[in-house]
Amino acid sequence: MKFRFFMATVFSAVLFASCESDNEINEIPQEELGNYSEGIFILNEGNFGSGNSSVSFLDPDLQEIKNNIYAEENDGESPGDTGQSIGFYGDYAFIVLNVSGKIEVVDRHTFENLVTIENGLDNPRFIDFSNEKAFVTNWGDGMDPDDDFVAVYDLENLQLEEIIPVEEGPERIMTVNNKVYVAHKGGFGFNNKISVVDPNIYVVEEIIEVGDVPNSMVSNGNSLWVLSSGLPAYAETETPGKITKIDLTTQEIVQEIKFNDQEHPTNLNLDEQKLYYTLEDAVYVLGQGDEALPDSALMQFNNEGVLYGFEVAKDEIYIAFANYDFTGDGKLIILDQAGNKMNEFSTGINPNGIYLTE
Amino acid sequence: MKLNRYYLLFLGLLLALPALSQNESVTRLEEVVLSDISLKRDSGERRVMLLNDSILRENEPSLTSVLKFNSTIFFRENGLGGVSSASFRGTSAQQTAVIWNGININSQFTGQTDFNTIPTGIVNDISIRPGGGSVLYGSGAIGGSVHLNNRFKFDEKFHNQLKLDYGSFETFSGVFKTAISSEKTSFQLNLTHHTSENDFEYPRENQFNENGDFGNTSLGLSVAHRLNKDHLLKFHSNFYQGERGFSGTVTAPSKSKFEDVNSRNLLEWNGFYGDLSSSFKLAYLDETFRYYENRQTGEHNFGRAKTGIAKTDLTYLFTRNLKVTGILEYQQIRGEGTNTGSNRRDIGSFALLLKHSLGDFSYQLSARKEATSNYESPLLFAANGLYKFSENYELRLGASKNFRIPTFNDLYWYAGGNLDLQPETSHQLELGHTFSLRKFKFDFAGYLIDSRNLLRWVPTSSGLWRPENTDEVRNYGLEAGLDWSNSIGSHIFDLNATYAWTHSQNQATKKQLIYVPEHKATASLGYNYKRYSIFYQFLYNGSIFTSSDNNYSLEDYQISNLGIARNFGRNDFMKIGFQVRNIFDEKYMSMPGRPMPGRYFNSSITFKL
């Protein structure tokens, strides 16, 4: 039983550190713990049906990339089909494989596989942690708008603890101030809601209506910003994107910034003062208190590929591109805060997520 | 033809009938027995390979399997029985046309045929015609075309044949064929049924091909009746219903299911008036698919397209050696579907063909122009010549312009469908040689295909996929075919082999296209002695790239099949056979993450009356 091995490692490790969001973990330098203790992970989703997702690792000096680290540490195996996202919790990384319908749990320092979670998953998307529990969004059957859910696992034994039925298309999930926020992008359809889940009693206590197709969220203090891309041109009525700011003490919408018609932004991110997003092939920045959108882009890319992954760190901006036909190796471009290109690397197939663990 | 019955394998028979022998009575006979008269008319100046009934009987009952082992066409299969797409001369599945009794049956939605939805038991023979054929066969006849034919006999006999197969993975196949004819009327009925659990073990132990089960039933009916000396009526009907689980992969489970229901009907009237002959055809095709993401629920999406075709064909024989044909055709397609809405397309076309023989040299010229409201259609043409240097050597030369029109998915897909698409076009050149020496026949051809404005789905900067006319591709390659047969006393030998060397390059990146093997070779050897027969089949498939940057590929593979059979009873009315497929248990894939079966077995019993 793999579970037993996992539990042994769970108990032998300091797991119950109070880290909640994947951006905030790893307060102790842990270089001696493995080859990947310090650096940046890039998840390459691979091709639907081909089972060729992979993980790349960029050294902390941003000089060298190592592709296929999961395969290297796990007998040449790929983590699975269509790597959707990674969640970090303590000494563990949870790789969510959408098409394989599973989560591979690895030692976050060595990337050695510890256990596979399959129970309770159906079209899993994103993961976050709260109260020693893992919360995983699931679309269920893509054609069925009524079977979407959040699966809750006990991190002590990785047993499925609860299935919380939610609105259609739960995508990004984020724990802030002891509440779990779920953005409902819509699975094969469209949605425009944020569910607020009480992680202690597993109940959706509030549903907040935001812009159409909320694709990303960030928070700072008592604020939650949600970026919605709007309904695409092929929907019955096209709608523009929108940034919605929610006050977390009241769960009320306190500000809305609308995009121009036919603008469908994605990839909301933040650093200490600023918000970042991407629109088509360009990166934009605005201040957290700004009332209007920036007039010009920080950086406009041309012919690099499809902008597919985006992450902002204190000093750098990471942008991942998939090839135009989504086969073959993608690339990672690193910009400094002023938008100047610092470096570029070849990644695995279709890089969709960049994970900073400092 | 007692020999015929003994033939286990009789592959790649060349139909290179000398052009000179095509006198009026032969032409008439062809028009009587075959609905795809163009195929026969073409077979002088072009290479057309015939896979006859006995070959079809000895292979697995799907079109994929027959062509995989007996032609240069490469197949990319989503596992055994799954969606199977062809690549002919390095082109895409949408650039290979499948022709049923002269009618193009590629899907209106996808523009291609899934070769695992065509049971071979439903037709009498299959012809493979490499190279462009859009003048005659319309959209998608670029890499080549595969022709499914029902022939009529007027032999005043009653033929019955029942073949039952049972093999590994609970695979059952039954084919029943009956034909009866009088001097005036010919009737044939073909029934096939094929089911399999298809749960073979993956190379990784204890992992199986789950949710890969399939079952299909097909019924074919062909009737011909001579009204009088100069008039003949023909009717072909084919119904197919198939249901398949879409199997998982090595790393992902699947719960999905796909259903196909296709019906095809063709009514034809031939008239012969001295030097003038006419053919009038009415066809009605109906294709339906249903896709269930989760087969446990009823939730599905669907598409259905109904195609009506009226076609008239007039041929005038100016002299014994000069023949001119005009073809006028009108098509109406109505499609509806979850993802494409309801749409209609009307296409009219006119084609003119000339066939001329001058002693050892003969040639054909043809051109076609379509008119439709959706897009501007290019003028298509073909020119083919044959020079017979001697009894042993013939030289063929061909040039053509072909096209592929946007499909209903390309035009009307709810997210990204593009109404501004134009047809993609391709120009091609071909040079072929045929050497015949007693029992040997060797064919060798080189070709060049330049395709432009390819219809490709590409992501826009907002992340939406849309089809566009983009990319230029150049394909060039060599094809070789060898056929040999010999008999010494009661010992009969047959050898057939094909080889293809294929380059297919994106002109912008100069990289080889994905899913095009550079090398493919097939060989089969048959040996008969009295009531015993044995065959050996071999396939080599070179490695294929799976990414356009050519950084990822699948390994090459070799597969061998072996079969033995014995005839029993008076007039050999019964035959019992046993086959081992993939005898060396090769582990291979033609799609990443989708292993094909290792060694497996089949037994068969055939009754003939």
Automatic annotation (TrEMBL), chain A:
It comes from the Bacteria. It holds the Pfam family DUF5074. InterPro entries: DUF5074 (IPR031815), Host-pathogen_enzymatic-act (IPR051200), Quino_amine_DH_bsu (IPR011044), WD40/YVTN_repeat-like_dom_sf (IPR015943). PANTHER family: DIHYDRO-HEME D1 DEHYDROGENASE, PROTEIN NIRF. This is 40-residue YVTN family beta-propeller repeat-containing protein. It comes from Salegentibacter flavus. The lineage of its organism: Bacteria, Pseudomonadati, Bacteroidota, Flavobacteriia, Flavobacteriales.
TrEMBL record, chain B:
It comes from the Bacteria. The keyword Ligase does not apply. Keywords: Cell outer membrane, Membrane, Receptor, Signal, TonB box, Transmembrane, Transmembrane beta strand, Transport. Residues 183-583 form the TonB-dependent receptor-like beta-barrel domain. One of its GO terms (biological process) is siderophore transmembrane transport. One of its GO terms (molecular function) is siderophore uptake transmembrane transporter activity. It holds the Pfam family Plug. This is Iron complex outermembrane recepter protein. InterPro entries: Beta-barrel_TonB, Beta-barrel_TonB_sf, Plug_dom, Plug_dom_sf, TonB-dep_rcpt-like.
